[in-house]
Amino acid sequence: MTPHPIVRDVTRRIRERSAPTRAAYLEQIDAYGHRDSGSDRMGCANVAHAVAGVPSNDKLRIVAERAPNIGIVTAYNDMLSAHQPYQGYPDIIKHEARRLGATAQVAGGVPAMCDGVTQGTPGMELSLFSRDVIAMGTAIALTHDMFDAALMLGVCDKIVPGLLIGALHFGHLPTVFVPAGPMPSGLSNSDKAKVREQAAQGLVGREGLMQAEMAAYHSPGTCTFYGTANSNQMLLEAMGLHVPGTAFIQPGDSMREALTREAVRTVLGKASTQAFSCPPIGKMIDERAIVNAMAALLATGGSTNHLIHWVAVARAAGIVIDWNDFSELSDVVPLLTRVYPNGSADVNAFQDAGGPGYVIGELVGAGLMHGDVLTVRAGGIAEFANVPTMQGEPSAEGVLHWEPAAPSKNEAVARPVSAPFSATGGLKLLKGNLGRSVIKVSSVPDDRHIIEAPARVFDSQAALQKAFTAGELDRDVVCVVRWQGPQANGMPELHKLTPPLSVLQGKGFRVALVTDGRMSGASGKVPAAIHVSPEAAAGGPLAKVRDGDVIRLDGVAGTLQVLLPDDEWAQRETATMPDEQREADGRGLGRELFAGMRRNALTAEEGACSWL
């Protein structure tokens, strides 16, 4: 299918804008891609250290037989329910590699923090920059330089972008991502949200709230709402980095092990579909693949975090994208799914309806994704329009089969391009005298896309929660929460603000949030202009706002304005971050270790990168 004119033009503009950096990147990975294997290239002592801990048969294969050696980078820990299943994956991978005449080693582990655990706590100030730490950890693991291919084990919010950024810095290696899947459905996301709102009003105590949360988050696997973690998996499918259809198969499904073994076969070029040499990840992830990921994000109303993370991912491959690119694509990419918080269904219902494969098939067929990209499979992106099925035992060959994901099995959850939920995508760029920001319009009721109300300015999310508890916000109000950007305090998610703001909206007040912080993929139904850039700590215009200023957030026209005469606004004094706020943020519980990252961070629109 010929690409849609806007998809074609955005891709061309990205290619032209990125030409120097992309060329330099490709030259760099080419230089590393034509070397002898590590066991031949490296000194004898180096090789001996690398294989000292492996069984003798593996030593023979690596050193004498020069068999392919796969580096495993794992984000396993059992603090994250989504990552707990990874505990046994290395043994499965090693067994399959040996069966195919290859070897595999755990090259290293990377940290993986759970935003669900750290929401509203000082730990959230480490969350965004943990992505760059994970990228560095991935580089440390792979820099042993004894590997012919790599498998990445990670699912959640900052972990996948971090692994991907790190892997792209070793872009000469064929690389496949290996997911673990979502937990089975528990208490519905909408019912959980209702209990949280009741708790915010004091109508439900801690015991009742705890019961609801335990019923929602109840077993190994990814959380079932369509937040950043599950958006990660959708985007990896759209970029062709998984075994097709792997994203949302639950950890307890017998097909899970078979798909993990298929990942080994895939990265070694011995997949069950047909013999195919898995391409180096750095050549596979070009501007077309990045556009495909952006289109998939928009079509599914995915996490706003990826307007930061995928900018950073693209930069790791020498590709430069910005929010204008997202906005232009959003004008033509329709919204094809309704998954919580953009609907009542969870990711398990999405998978049952056809899942990522259905969306990819629809977008490719309509020219809204590039169909001629490289992927880890011989069939290209067309293979990713299928869903896997299995017959027989998971360790046997030939048990996996793929069937077309289309047609949708539930059009209340996933619809065709010909009859979308919305003609445009789920995200909108906002511009005006308050800077540049984004809003997730797909989750906001139509009658709330435009909010005009007096501002109430807060220097922290705790201050907003205190004002809500005191009843000071029972009116039409635009809550401005500033000093929450990358340079100020590491840009923590402000997800704890969702329940009180939802309560105010439920009372009939017209409310909105404007912040230089983040709200994640679970931001709820309250209009939120987030990631405001430049941030207040960098002298951005949020530092000029005062209580009572009338702010207009217009998600239709794409504007965010303080309604003041231009000359008065230009002369308004810019506030500085209060000393007590600066002391409260960035000190204690390890936050001092990230001071250099805060100082060096680029803007949210530049990916908040600390390594450029």
UniProtKB/TrEMBL annotation:
Its cofactor is [4Fe-4S] cluster. [4Fe-4S] cluster binds at C156, C223. It holds the Pfam family ILV_EDD_C. GO terms for cellular component: cytosol. One of its GO terms (biological process) is D-gluconate metabolic process. Binds 1 [4Fe-4S] cluster. Residues 413-608 form the Dihydroxy-acid/6-phosphogluconate dehydratase C-terminal domain. Belongs to the IlvD/Edd family. Catalyzes the dehydration of 6-phospho-D-gluconate to 2-dehydro-3-deoxy-6-phospho-D-gluconate. This is Phosphogluconate dehydratase. It comes from Variovorax guangxiensis.
